[in-house]
Amino acid sequence: MYVTNANQAVDMADFAQFPTETCALPETRLAAGAHLFREGDAVTRIYQVVAGVVSLNRLLEDGRRQIIAFGLPGDLVGFPCDGRHHTDCEALSLVRLQPFRITQIDCATGDPVLRARFMEAALHEIAAMQDHFMMLGRKSAAERVASFLIALDARTGQDRDGQRRVDLPMSRADIADFLGLTTETVSRVLSQLRKSRVIALDGIHRVVFLRPAALRALATGDCD
Amino acid sequence: MYVTNANQAVDMADFAQFPTETCALPETRLAAGAHLFREGDAVTRIYQVVAGVVSLNRLLEDGRRQIIAFGLPGDLVGFPCDGRHHTDCEALSLVRLQPFRITQIDCATGDPVLRARFMEAALHEIAAMQDHFMMLGRKSAAERVASFLIALDARTGQDRDGQRRVDLPMSRADIADFLGLTTETVSRVLSQLRKSRVIALDGIHRVVFLRPAALRALATGDCD
DNA sequence: CGCCGAGTTGACAATGATCAAGACCTGTGG
DNA sequence: CCACAGGTCTTGATCATTGTCAACTCGGCG
């Protein structure tokens, strides 16, 4: 999952399920904290997240971390480049994944339907990453957090009592590493949104949208 | 072109030329400042840069700009998503481009060889963008500029008198919008590198690498 | 020669990072 | 069921990096 402009829905979730019957590999399960693959690993499978959340990470030698994307249900993770993974993939919760053999995609012997869907997913991935660049390069801390909440809501938000609410299945540190901020800054922005009654926090890992319009304005910088 | 870690060569340039004979469309020429396409345009062609440089841009309503990537000779630009372009594409110099019909790629009627190369290019694009995330999210201004010079050198650098030298075909503002900085900061970092004898500036648009090792150390943060 | 845009440099401000302390969950064991 | 321990989260104080605003220089071109 990447963060997009408020007015652009993230549509990875709209993808039709991959045709599992054509290449039935058993579902993989992963406990929170476990790694599915690491940067540099040879790619033999790609995975569609069925349930739970994963993160795609890159590390710098000195420990700085950037989360490239979160993998939510419906997302495809593990795009190869020259046969290798270019990120770590870590489970943030109990995760279920549907694996697909890479051989079914990258050569002429594979399934054309699967290959076409894979191509489509890769192009969506590129478009989503392009949106995310704008955020990392040009948006303020408040804009980033607001954009993140809106994007997450578009993917996994629920209606309850006429209010949108969204779970944050990841830690503040994960959010910070995704947005290019520190945990302290993420925490401060959330507190500020809470104090200004734009959101409410229902426990640490659930956000209720009190004034969605204000949040949208914040995300796009229209509040000035 | 994206900026990668210093130790990872940008390899888009290694791609075999696309088989132009299979779908011979005439080369497109574009003057500096002209737009090849804009965000939202329907995608009918994708293009391989033959000569010159283009930039792929995204804009925020308030004018903030992020350059997603520079398109250097060999690079493929115009990846579609749901049939639309998701960035503007602007020529930064006189540019020559080889167009390809999108119909040859996205459906079963297309050329399999071309489609495979397109797939490969898309996956390389994803990997390159992942590298760039680390820079925008986690690197300091000096690290970004140093990384940028090294990445550009890997693509278009020349040897002369035993020294590497690289042209900067874009303005300081373009570099800033690519790196998520301001023109002033880019200028200051370049001045500082010049004063510390890491680089020399041979005119505004040419950099000579005096101490490449120091530049590499700077790019990866090893200088501390 | 003078103009004009791009680039550079300086002074200052602001945003977000860092460092530190305290509060709050959550799981474990008595 | 409660107490404790360890991590996560929040909040405050301070600092550093980078952005902003402004002045000035440089280089190309009429």
UniProtKB/TrEMBL annotation, chains A, B:
This is CRP/FNR family transcriptional regulator, anaerobic regulatory protein/CRP/FNR family transcriptional regulator, nitrogen fixation regulation protein. Residues 139-213 form the HTH crp-type domain. PROSITE patterns: CNMP_BINDING_3, HTH_CRP_1, HTH_CRP_2. Residues 24-78 form the Cyclic nucleotide-binding domain. GO terms for molecular function: DNA binding; DNA-binding transcription factor activity. Keywords: DNA-binding, Transcription, Transcription regulation. Pfam families: cNMP_binding, HTH_Crp_2.
